Amino acid sequence: MTHPMLTRAAQGIAAVLLLMAAAMKFMGDPGSIEIFARLGMDPAGRYLIAVVEMTAAMLLLSPFAALGSVIATAVMCGAIIAHVTELGLVVNNDSGRLIGMLVVVLVCVAYVLVSRRKEIPFVGETL
Amino acid sequence: MPSTFAVDLEKMSRTANTGLVLLLAVFGAAGYLVSFYFHFVTVALFLLVLLNLYWRYGQTSHTLLANFGFLAQTRYIVESVGPEFRQYLFASDTEERPFTRVDRAEVYRKAKGIDSSEAFGSLLDFDRDEIKLRHSFYPVDKKDLEPFDVAVGASRGLDTTFHIRRPMMISAMSYGALGQNAVRALARGAKLAGTVMNTGEGGHPKYHLMEGCDLIFQMGTAKFGVRTEDGLLDEDKLSALATLDQVKMIEIKLSQGAKPGKGGLLPKEKVTAEIAELRGVPLGHDVISPAHHIECKCPASTAQFISRVQHVSGLPTGIKFCLGRPDEFRTLVQEMKRQDTLPDFITVDGGEGGTGAAPKSFMDHLGLPLFEALPIVHRILEDEGVRDRLVMFASGKLISPGRQLEALSLGADVAYSARGFLLALGCIQALQCNRNTCPVGITTHQPHLQRGLDIADKARRVANYVGALHHDHVELLAAMGKSSSRLLTQENVYLPTGGPVSPASQELS
Ligand SMILES: Cc1cc2nc3c(=O)[nH]c(=O)nc-3n(C[C@H](O)[C@H](O)[C@H](O)COP(=O)(O)O)c2cc1C
Do A41 and B37 touch (CB under 8 A)? Predict the structure, then answer.
């Protein structure tokens, strides 16, 4: 059903996008600051999420990609909640660019999650 | 009587499954109304709810999960970490198998050179049936003890007669079962300690030879290292190997205690170019060890084969087996006598012996335990009048000086151990020898796991272990009033079953 090459490609794409997102948060990109300010989480939450994103990206490139995909999926779910409940789909007049990125990452990590489900610690054997 | 304390698992899990969804809602609301930080928990719960739905309605292979949901998974988790948990938290000091913590601690201490005296009293269960050594009213002075010296090959008057000067040798473990660091640490330790190491059936002993210790070359049923393409003996290869200075004896393996009557298979994935070369087998094929030597089909051909190896190698040559039927052994000895050809030594491996990998049923149910087999073999050899023409080695959990002297009393001349030395190398009994994942780098070929096994440091431990065993051997002998282990007899052990051996096994022979 899933193809190992595709899984690897998905891991790579997701890791790059996550690293980019984390870098922007670390460097204090005004757009990120504004978003986290609106969520009432700036700057602590911004750094926290950046660290989590970086961890997930690195795991995705390691033999523990399954764990990385779980973490990344969780972060993306959080982001979706943020957009739906607080931010709206179009942020800072970006005509949905941010949401687009989010969907790309989510699709990639979900693909990794499904194809590597057997490797997830503790529950993998049952999936 | 109503069981008031019984936990209603079904109700509990129903509550848990609903509770999970409610909790998700609560945290979702809190994230929305109070602080977005609550959503950290929301997403975790969300994923858990999804997973739980899949477990309950999306899969059919796990009944418990389908019936009870995520609570049942805690059971799988607890079960999967159970062995480690029990080992660290609950197993008592005399409970673990194959070696209890008391057994292992003694080896660790000897290997590290720490004083192994104990206080207050023995941790063993004295009311159980335990074999004990008998001491004497009249201990001998340690100064009057003869140095340990067992000559192998002397009865044939060989120039190559080898003198074993330590009561404990390293039993067969192949390069293949062990990684190269472990082999080298053992070999270097053997050299330091002045004892002998068996190469195991892994073929040409490349790594064993690096450290300069005395070696017993083992010829397994596949004759790795000395085979022709169809698995017969290649005499040229054997005589070439026998000229190596370090190779002192040859051991023909007929069977081993952990899997008597069974060969082995090394899957082609694990056959590296190096292993193929050392073993003398083609690359890209499974490597199969037959259940017996092709040449040995009956007593006559077995005796002939032994004598052929003796003559080709010119070295003291023996056989290793785990005893099954005493009558078969007696017939073999009688046939050897008829052909006037006896092995120079016999290794008796107990059914409790270890291995890199063997089917569970073979490990658990095939082959006589060492302390049953030894007296039988000894008596058959005596009955046939050939006991003094050969030397007997014994293996099977002989990792402590007490058990070793018990074996020597029951008929053996020298003790042999495999796993005792693995413990000295730092084995923690993780029971993963067959998976290439040995956490202490002994039975694995993975470089990152072998990295931690420092050859020089572990060699020292191996040597310490042999030294401490020899020390205790002397002390115990003196207490038993014997000036040499050659004088030990069955009278020197107390067997709780009453007789010299249990009646059941006597009947058979
Ligand atoms: C990892 C490992 C590998 C072994 N490989 C061999 C082998 O190649 N040939 C053999 O005859 N016995 C082999 N054995 C069996 C031992 O030589 C020995 O007979 C047995 O383990 C009993 O001794 P012990 O209780 O002191 O370990 C192996 C045992 C272990 C634990």
Answer: yes
The reply to whether omega before A43 is within 30° of 0 (cis) is yes
What atom in ligand 1 is closest to the CA of residue B253? 11
Cis ω before B267 (30° cut-off from 0): no
Contacts of B173 (CB under 8 A, 6+ apart): B183, B186, B198, B200, B356, B418, B422
Considering CB atoms only, which of B42, B46, B73 is closest to A123? B73
CB-based burial label for B151 (10 Å; 0-12, 13-18, 19+)? middle
pLDDT at B507: 43
Predicted structure pTM score: 0.77
Q: What ipTM did this prediction achieve?
A: 0.93
Range with the poorest average pLDDT among A40-44, A93-97, B394-398, B448-452: A93-97
Could you read off the pLDDT of B176-216 as tens digits, one per residue? 889 999 999 999 999 999 999 999 999 999 999 999 999 99
Q: Cα-flanking dihedrals φ and ψ of residue A48, to 5°?
A: -60, -50
**Tens digit of each residue's pLDDT (9 = 90 or more) over A83-127:** 999 888 887 777 778 889 999 999 999 999 999 999 998 888 888
Q: How far apart are CA B97 and CA B431, in angstroms?
A: 10
Count residue pairs from A and B with Cβ separation < 8 A: 47
- E strands, B201-336, in order: 214-219, 247-253, 264-266, 287-289, 317-321
Q: Out of A74, A81, A122, name the one closest to residue B31 (CB).
A: A81
Closest by CA to B179, choosing from B200, B150, B154, B148, is B200
In chain A, which residues have their Cβ closer than 8 Å to the Cβ of B42? 78, 81
First to last CA, chain B: 57
B46: chain A residues, CB-CB within 8 Å: 77
Cα of A78 to nearest chain B Cα, Å: 6
